[in-house]
Amino acid sequence: MIFISRHLSDSSPLRAWVASQGDTIDDRSLLTFAPVAFTPPGDAHWWFFYSPRAVQYAGAIPPTVRTAAIGGTTAASLYRHAGRVDFCGTGEPRAVAEEFLAVAEGQRVFFPRARQSRRSVQMLLADRVTVLDAICYDNQPVPPTAAIVADTYIFTSPLNVAAYLDHWELPAGARVMALGPSTGSELVRRGVPCSWPVLPTDEELVKMLRHVV
């Protein structure tokens, strides 16, 4: 059995691959989400998004601003929402910050974010851009009431890692994967060996899983 800490759509390549292997998947977030009222700035050059959830709760994006996403999954959500993505990073905060500076240095960048966000990119950019910051949604951990029994655990955010590992241990020999370097770094910090795909997508997770089946 595979556990992943987010809900998968019916058309998810990961869901289809697991079914083709005769395996089962437990796909559920260990977080709750709620919108937070905020007033967006009127003078930003860029809106930068850390997650698809931020895109969901940020509301209408002014047509005059440029849009940026930390990685591919967020960029896909941003494109569906706004019809454009002017910058897409790799998902690794330090590399994203360096690449983003090439197009945004000295400009005003708005970061609509989660209350629990680590603000990784904006903290790296603080002295090179004007950071405009607002919480647009609340995200709180909801630990499972019992340990999740699986052969493979896929964590999709550092907060999901905390929601589980602050309360339950992983079984010996379990395979652990992360969806992106920030989540991977949190697992490593907790002493949990893990791996993560080059891109934070279901397709890339499937490629990795094929090599270990």
> Could you spell the SSE succession in H and E letters?
EHEEEHEHEHEHEEHEHH
Radius of gyration, in angstroms, nearest whole number = 18 Å
What is the count of DSSP helices, taking H or I runs of 4+ residues? 8
The residue fraction in helices comes out at 25-40%
Mean pLDDT: 94
Task: Count structural domains.
Answer: 2
Q: What fraction of the residues are assigned to beta strands by DSSP?
A: 15-25%
Widest sheet: strand order? 3-8-7-4-5-6
Q: How far is it from the N-terminal to the C-terminal residue, by CA? A: 12 Å
Question: How many E-type strands?
Answer: 10
* Poorly predicted sequence stretches spanning 5 or more consecutive residues: none
Architecture of the largest domain, according to CATH? 3-Layer(aba) Sandwich
Quick one: overall form? Answer: globular
* Helix/strand structural class: alpha/beta
Please report the first level of CATH classification, the CATH class of the largest domain: Alpha Beta
Output the CATH topology of the largest domain. Answer: Rossmann fold
**Mind summarizing the main beta sheet?**
6 strands, mixed
Organism: Neolewinella maritima
Protein name: Tetrapyrrole biosynthesis uroporphyrinogen III synthase domain-containing protein
Domain Tetrapyrrole biosynthesis uroporphyrinogen III synthase: 43-206
InterPro entries: 4pyrrol_syn_uPrphyn_synt_sf, 4pyrrol_synth_uPrphyn_synth
